[in-house]
Model the fold of this input.
Amino acid sequence: MADPEASAPPAPYDVLFEPVAIGPLVTRNRFFQVPHCNGMGYRDPSAQAAMRKVKAEGGWAVVCTEQVEIHPTSDITPFIELRIWDDEDLPSLARIAAAIHEGGALAGIELAHNGMNAPNLYSREIPLGPHHLPVATFGYHPVQARMMTKQDIADLRRWHRNAVARSMTAGYDLVYVYAGHSFGGIEYFLSPRFNQRTDEYGGSTRNRMRLLREILEDTLEVADGRVAVACRISVEEGLAGAGISRGHIEEILGELGELPDLWDFVRGSWDVDSTTSRFGPEGEQEKYVAGLKKLTSKPVVGVGRFTSPDLMVRQVKSGVLDLIGAARPSIADPFLPEKIRTGRLETIRECIGCNVCVSGDFTMSPIRCTQNPSMGEEFRRGWHPERIRARGSGSRILVIGSGPAGLEAARALGVRGYDVVLTEAGRDLGGRVAREARLPGLASWVRVLDYRQQAIEALPNVEVYRESRMSADDIVGFEFQHVAVATGATWRRDGVARWHTQPLLADPGADVLTPDDLMAGRRPRGPRVVVYDDDHYYLGGVLAELLRGEGFEVELVTPAAQASAWTVNTMEVDKIQRRLLLAGVAIRTSAALTAVGDGQVTVANVYTGQPGEVAADSVVMVTARLPEDELFQQLLARKEQGQITSVRAIGDAWAPGTIAAAVWSGRRYAEEFDTELPGGDVVPFRREVTQLHGSGSENR
Ligand code: ADP
Ligand code: SF4
Done:
């Protein structure tokens, strides 16, 4: 797809299309898809191969795998990554490398021994670390790492050498030594917080970097100039002096700066590096990475959720980075480099920084993306971020509602070539995403609307009508035969969600608000507000932040053990507690609302039932939602009467969910329109099923 002979990139961005030498390699430009997890790993290798190939097609010069566990002592189960434990893993890895090459990119593999980050729940091996310490994972696994002996260190070096050799057999061009993100186990040796050894691998910075030096030297020796060697390293742990500091990293680069062919600088652990837009701006890492490039003559790659080509150019011209690294921007738009190269900046699907992609990895499910609904579906369903098959008929389609679902359905149907009419009851397009983007920290989310609105404006076959609330009679009267109902959902006022599945009785004098009320501008009637969060994603926390920022006294009450508990999957949960607590929001966990009175609410501890009372002038219910599906039900009846041919509810009007789910639902409608669906008895996507080992009789 990316044809380097095609027209030159626009002048301000030509620097981004210069080749860069990485050891024996020369890249076609400066765009580098850094390793990133995807929840597919060893379980879905062909799906991963297809996903990486699309990125290569989209113009990335280097496309890497996620971390690849090199040995059964490096098993980060329950997370699903790739493995290179022995030759049995090679066919999967080779398929991915071949797919990247087919797409036109160089293939990188991130070899990882997770050390004391690996709980080894699958292999049941004892984790290996610099010292006797509990494993440093996202879960409180009751597992301790064992202090590595000299023999363990020798074994680790041999395993790493084996993995390098296997990576070369599998066809990779670039192999990583991983000492970053608190995943690469070597980092625990570098960090004075974890490394308390008294032998030659502990103590001084020079001693603590000994293992990294040895593994780099081993890797270079096996690579033998035939493949490039990268080192990914955390330049700062964000631990207020306890971990790796700027001084340490400068000393490490002073000693090892010339060893690898490429330095890949990251910041701290994964959650520190991959902040959401709610907690950090684009290019946030610059202040930690700036100045390090001078300490080495080797090229440097780094990330920053870069979607702005101007900022990318500045990174290169000001000498911060040589290669523009991206995980999330390459997920939201696999064709980002091609779009910059061909001057189609307005077609870039900018990452909104929501970390829904991360949630795929955290929930052990294939990667998904709010902006790019084809992400993770390249192999399973044959979806592509830029291509969709041409229309199957001359049908005209009415899409009702311009939220994420309706916008994506209208856009994708329009690209297929159908005549589409998109109607919106209100004056503004965007539905919930336009409303939520006005809340604290969520401004970037408006990109879900911006990208689709621009795309729709460029499609002459998609007409948009605002302030056009449609009734069933209107639809029949205008002779629409095919209707997608994307009318969204409404937040409940009656407390029904997970804890209460029946409406909660409220005093008639009580002031009960919903998120819809707050987003429409209504405010609590008095200063004391309880935000009751039985939704557990971001909104309860965001609304507490909004009200606190406006001067209300806010207590967030939740049956969960933390505010916004599900955001553990977007790596925001700790940052949310910190922000709310520092802002002065009181957080009452493990508590369910039991009654809403006029001036107070009663709560009960979810374990003991012990009651409590909280003074509150108003309550905000962040609970469940109900689909706005009245029109859909009416249209179903019209279909029965033969007045229309097809009707489907999509997005929140079908079942309230995430914005990502609504976008995906809109895409699915467009993909499946005019398709004979196989029916619910058939698995609606391709998958890979575990291959059986031997005949089975040997195990009995
Ligand atoms: P989703 O997340 O499923 O896309 P949203 O709630 O974001 O849903 O968007 C639904 C949109 O549909 C809102 O902008 C709303 O104003 C609009 N809408 C609801 N009912 C109608 C209707 N009868 N006719 C046209 N637009 C409607
Ligand atoms: Fe960006 Fe969100 Fe997509 Fe991840 S899911 S790539 S953060 S838009």
In short: The pocket of adenosine-5'-diphosphate (ligand 1) is lined by residues 400-406, 423-426, 431-432, 469-470, 486-489, 628, 631, 651-653, 662 (CB under 6 Å). The mean pLDDT is 96.
